[in-house]
Amino acid sequence: MDSETRGVPQRVAVIGGGAVGCYMAAEAYAAGHQVTLCLRTLFERLIVETFDASEEVPVTIAAAADAATDIAADADADKLTTADWVLITTKAQDTPSTQRWLDQLVDARTVIVLLQNGVNHEERLVQLVHQGVTLPGLVYVAVERVSPGRIVHRGGSRILVPDGEYGERFQELLRGSHTEVVLETDFLTSTWKKLLSNLAANPITALTLQRIGIMQHPDVEGLARELLLEGVAVARAVGAKLGSEDVEETLDFYARFKSDGGTSMLYDRLSGRPLEHEYITGAVVSMGEKHGIPTPINRVLLTLLRQLTPLNLS
Hints:
Layout (H helix, E strand, L loop, with lengths): L10 E5 L3 H12 L3 E6 L6 E4 L4 E4 L2 E4 L11 E2 L8 E4 L10 H7 L5 E5 L17 E15 L2 E13 L2 H9 L6 E5 L2 H13 L1 H8 L9 H20 L6 H13 L7 H7 L10 H11 L4 H11 L8
Parallel strand pairs: 1-2, 1-7, 2-5, 3-10, 5-6, 7-8, 8-9, 10-11
Antiparallel strand pairs: 3-4, 9-10
């Protein structure tokens, strides 16, 4: 953020009404900005819960033009003006659906922050937007959407972005919120390290419909270690600086979670939403093929994940 805009409320549009989207809208509002939450499925209000509090966050809620709902939006998508910042928080596979919002919200000065899982974030926007600046971000926040517009923040408030001008501006944007923005000089390694944190727990919890406590079972921990070792081998092949110590660090990371916590892939399966396995497990398998690295355990899980049918147990 340059000297002329530092401390001045920015126009922030958050695309996506899932757990991360609602959380980021609340954080941008806490930092003092004008926030519009852009939704495909409308809800009336945004509620953020923690272990000891519940708060309604008065952001502006905008609905897509084709949204089927009886709820009145605060703003019409077709009447939105361009934003200083656009935060894309949809699942990776839903990125193309943001086209309608990007056409309306982005101009040459807009910074687009892509807050999604997986690797090669910028490639997802190549065909969707031809102006503005793209900044990838890695989200370390434990948050669950328990119903439309209502989220529970269970812990963690950290986002990693590449070091540089736009990373610094994003850091300044969220100053005053609860979120720590960390500038990373080796973002490639950080990206693969984040993928590693999802690589075992996400598919295992989604396939078993179990909370994160299952990762502490000795047999499951052994399976997770094999999945992670394959991931590290692929990461090293593409230039990320990871090693066996990162496997053990990830397993320790799982062990520190409260046993009743979950993963984004588990929450998506419980809610009947599509899973993003192609951008996590699928990324490891496909990049392994490209670089001649065998990934048999991840391939088995990917095969199983592809056979899952939608269900809704929420």
